[in-house]
Specification:
Elements lengths: L1 H19 L2 H8 L3 H15 L4 E3 L4 E3 L1 H25 L7 E7 L1 H18 L3 E7 L6 H4 L3 E5 L8 E9 L1 E5 L1 H7 L5 H4 L5 E5 L2 E2 L2 E4 L5 E4 L5 E3 L2 H9 L5 E4 H10 L3 E3 L8 E8 L6 H15 L5
Parallel strand pairs: 3-4, 3-5, 8-12
Antiparallel strand pairs: 1-2, 5-15, 6-15, 7-13, 7-14, 8-9, 10-11
Helix pairs in contact: 1-2, 1-3, 1-4, 2-3
Length: 304
């Protein structure tokens, strides 16, 4: 029986390492050491009598035998994990580590206080949080939950639940507008300084609607390219140009007059804010609890 248990453990470790493409990432996901992963894979290879991985200093790849073995084992491992998740869902108190990725500025300002309140009420729940503004592959990165703006370009293998909607506001400081004027049309916007997001070496476009009510994306002048939402707002407050940000991140500045909204017809259509997770037959209790809580908080107006 012990030998069977070890064999199943070895297969689970193999599947996790194959999906991660890294012993280090697999070790982190499994909660064991990198050395333990390597030893388990070596034992499995000895038992099977073949090599499963190509190992180099830069990458880890499957051999032909490894690819065939992965194709046979991966679904079986998923079935076992899902069966365990279904049984563990009987637990009333969410526990364990939840890996969640959030948009940087919105995540820090709006979502983080909500998550902290959830954790205070569920002390057995532990968070691993990252902050990125582009859609990552949650399966590849080992993420349980994502929160993202807008529709998913590739939703295969993912489930999305809408939390709320929010306008993307184009605004600048009164001092900038007094000095350079207010653009009354999108065409005139291109004559101004703009502070745009910057991800993976590329400036990000702005989203809005055209005269026919169709959602469009424009590429404003990238006078300043900034990879952090809070810094974008700070630069707009300093009079460096126009920015487009979620309304929740600039609403206080708009109310106080420190920022002024322009081209409001372009920003009239709200953008969805979704919580996203990998599609499985049985949702883990900790994931289900946090998703349900986020939905409730959104209905109360706590998500911006």
């Amino acid at each position: 029986m012990a030998q069977i248990d070890q064999s199943l453990s070895g297969v689970t470790i193999f599947v996790t390492a194959a999906r991660a493409g890294s012993f280090t990432i697999a070790a982190d996901r499994l909660g064991i050491t990198k050395s333990a992963v390597g030893k388990s894979i070596a034992k499995l290879e000895d038992r099977l009598g073949c090599k499963l991985f190509h190992r180099t200093t830069r990458r880890l790849g499957l051999t032909v035998d490894g690819e065939a073995y992965f194709a046979s084992c991966a679904n079986a491992v998923d079935e076992i994990m899902e069966a365990e998740a279904a049984l563990s869902s009987r637990q009333k108190t969410p526990s364990g580590r939840l890996r969640i990725d959030l948009p940087a500025a919105y995540g820090r300002s709006i979502v983080l206080p909500v998550l902290l309140d959830i954790v205070k009420k569920n002390p057995e729940l532990h968070l691993t949080m990252s902050f990125t503004d582009y859609l990552i592959d949650p399966i590849e990165e080992g993420i349980d939950l994502l929160i993202r703006f807008g529709e998913l370009k590739d939703s295969s293998g993912l489930v999305a639940r809408r939390l709320t909607t929010q306008r993307q506001v184009i605004c600048a400081s009164p001092s900038y507008i007094q000095r350079y004027g207010e653009p009354k049309t999108l065409e005139r916007l291109y004559e101004h300084c703009c502070i745009v997001g910057f991800r993976r070496g590329q400036p990000l476009g702005w989203v809005g609607i055209d005269e026919d009510g169709q959602l469009i994306r424009i590429a404003p002048p990238a006078t300043h390219e900034v990879g952090d939402g809070d810094a974008i707002v700070a630069m707009a407050l300093a009079g460096m140009g126009f920015c487009q940000m979620p309304e929740s991140l600039v609403i206080d500045h708009l109310k106080s007059g420190r920022l002024v909204s322009v081209l409001e017809s372009f920003s009239a259509k709200p953008v969805e804010i979704n919580v996203v997770w990998p599609k499985t037959r049985h949702l883990l209790p900790k994931v289900r609890h946090v998703v349900d809580e986020l939905v409730v908080r959104a209905e109360r107006g706590e998500m911006g």
